[in-house]
Write a structure and sequence with these properties.
Strand order of the largest sheet: 2-1-3-10-4-11
Order of helices and strands: HEHEHEHHHEEHEHEHEHEEHHEH
Strand content: 15-25%
Oligomer: single chain
CATH topology of the largest domain: D-Maltodextrin-Binding Protein, domain 2
Number of domains: 2
Structural class: alpha/beta
Number of strands: 11
CATH class of the largest domain: Alpha Beta
Length: 322
């Protein structure tokens, strides 16, 4: 007498259990949004648009890139973290957004809790450059010059608390030199002052440095990590002179926390295919960017590893980052 209602209830339970899987199978059913925590035209924007175009082709949907600069990336992180956890709104964060800012800003740390990893996108070393106004042609000569002129060698950066700033602080600690940090609001003015000799050295990515290197206004001394890109592959590693002087700046893709695992798996699988596309790899290497495919777990591990590295440096050197 109760068999039919029981059967109906059982079927309803099966349908409920199957719903997420069915939804994941139909994903994506509409366009996606890539939120980039930087202004249009910069390195992050270039990488995001190249990857979004190819990933969109892989997924069969358009991916719209939305630039949301300012606020140390917190507005962009919040926009994604508070979006529906359905895989349609994603954050392409720079390593500093997710490894340094959460150490120094409560709002950034809170925003990070609302995100989950999808996969790595790219990685690039920083290039150590010096002005040609000082007699320096390699890393050891820069260290020697700084020791001979304590407090007189200034390292510029695009701003306090960024990867380039902490890279300079790591260099200072390892080389035991008295160098000074001069923060700028962005890269354009610091490049002008580096060429003129107002600041003597800088860590930055090759795309922002190449024009002045080619012109002979600044000198490339070494890399913070190995690279396969044509413009950087021949440069020496700084760690060969200064052991431990290693780091990269990287980009990773994040989704709102609570996004269904089948959706994350689908995104990661198609992202990995995108990042191994030979044509895209070649175009990005022309920009001195190495595309890096990973699992979500590997991105999570990389995030924690770099957070630990920069956190130890900030604590050991008693750095004040506002």
């Amino acid at each position: 007498m109760y068999r039919r209602p029981l059967l109906a209830g059982a079927l309803a339970g099966v349908a409920l259990c199957a719903a997420p899987s069915a939804g994941a199978q139909s994903y994506p059913a509409k366009s996606l949004r890539f939120v980039v925590p930087f202004a249009a035209g910069g390195p992050a924007d270039v990488v995001a648009r190249e990857v979004a175009t190819k990933l969109g082709q892989q997924l069969g949907q358009t991916i719209v890139v939305e630039n949301m600069g300012g606020g140390h990336g917190v507005p962009a992180m919040n926009a994604v973290g508070r979006a529906a956890p359905d895989g349609y709104t994603l954050l392409m964060a720079a390593s500093g957004n997710v490894t340094i800012q959460p150490l120094t800003m409560r709002t950034s740390a809170e925003a990070m809790k609302r995100l989950m990893p999808v996969g790595m996108v790219s990685s690039s070393p920083h290039v150590l450059v010096s002005t040609t106004k000082i007699p320096v042609s390699n890393v050891q000569e820069l260290i020697d010059y700084a020791r001979q002129h304590p407090g007189k060698v200034n390292f510029g950066s695009a701003g306090t608390g960024g990867v380039a700033h902490l890279g300079m602080e790591l260099f200072k600690a390892l080389s035991r030199t008295e160098i000074e940090h001069i923060p700028y609001k962005g890269t354009s003015q610091v490049m002008v002052d580096l060429a003129s000799g107002e600041v003597q050295a800088l860590f930055s990515s090759m795309p922002s440095l190449k024009a002045l290197i080619d012109k002979g206004s600044i000198r490339a001394l070494g890399l913070t990590a190995p690279s396969k890109a044509s413009d950087t592959a021949s440069l020496p590693l700084i760690s060969a002179t200064l052991p431990g002087m290693e780091y990269t700046t990287w980009y990773g893709l994040y989704a709102p926390a609570g996004t269904p695992q089948p959706v994350i798996d689908k995104l990661n699988a198609e992202l990995r295919k995108t990042l191994t596309d030979p044509a895209l790899v070649a175009r990005m290497r022309e920009q001195s960017v190495d595309l890096i495919a990973s699992t979500p777990a590997e991105l999570d591990a990389r995030t924690k590893q770099d957070t630990g590295k920069w956190g130890r440096l900030i604590k050991e050197e008693n750095l004040k980052i506002d």
